Amino acid sequence: MAHRCPFPFLSARSRLRQPARPQPQSAGAASDPAAAAAPHPPGAMEHGSVTDSTASTFSIMDEDHTLANSVRFVLNQDPRVAFCGYSIPHPADNKVNIRVQTTGDPAKDVLKDSLQDLMLMCQHVRGTFDTAVTDFRRNNPTGMNIDQNKKK
């Protein structure tokens, strides 16, 4: 089954895949093998089965309900998703667990598509907001006078 996005401004033509950005390498990392071998804590981690790629839990570090609920909303709009939910294990932890079960596609791919959709939605909202601000400033060259009721 082909992925059909429920948002009209996210047409198949607008789903541009961004090339992966090369990770900057520190000056000492190339010459120091110990620095290159030092583990770097990941921002996200997948916990799933080796035999079943349709169900996984993704742990995302340093995030909260803001991102998790947005991702959950977009994932639940996808017809390939059978179940999606998230939890925060403890209020003191800056970690979100997002559980994704799909109808057949790999959960990792569905999550990537949903994150791409969410990014495009945010870009659309930002563009609409910027256009509205520009239009307001063009139509009100003096700007907003918040002291209109004050007498001079």
UniProtKB/TrEMBL annotation:
Spans annotated as Disordered: 12-52
Location of the DNA-directed RNA polymerase RBP11-like dimerisation domain: 56-126
Database matches in Pfam families: RNA_pol_L_2
Biased composition (Low complexity): 23-38
InterPro entries reported in the protein's UniProt record: RBP11-like (IPR036603), RBP11-like_dimer (IPR009025), RNA_pol_Rpb11_13-16kDa_CS (IPR008193), RNAP_AC19 (IPR033898), Rpo11-like (IPR022905)
GO biological process: transcription by RNA polymerase III; transcription elongation by RNA polymerase I
Main subcellular localisation: nucleus
One Gene Ontology molecular-function label: DNA-directed RNA polymerase activity
Gene Ontology cellular component list: RNA polymerase I complex; RNA polymerase III complex
Transmembrane recorded as keyword: no
Record key words, sorted: DNA-directed RNA polymerase, Nucleus, Transcription
CDD domains registered for this protein in UniProt: RNAP_I_III_AC19
Cross-referenced HAMAP family: RNApol_arch_Rpo11 (MF_00261)
Name under which the protein is recorded: DNA-directed RNA polymerases I and III subunit RPAC2
Source organism phylogeny: Eukaryota, Viridiplantae, Streptophyta, Embryophyta, Tracheophyta
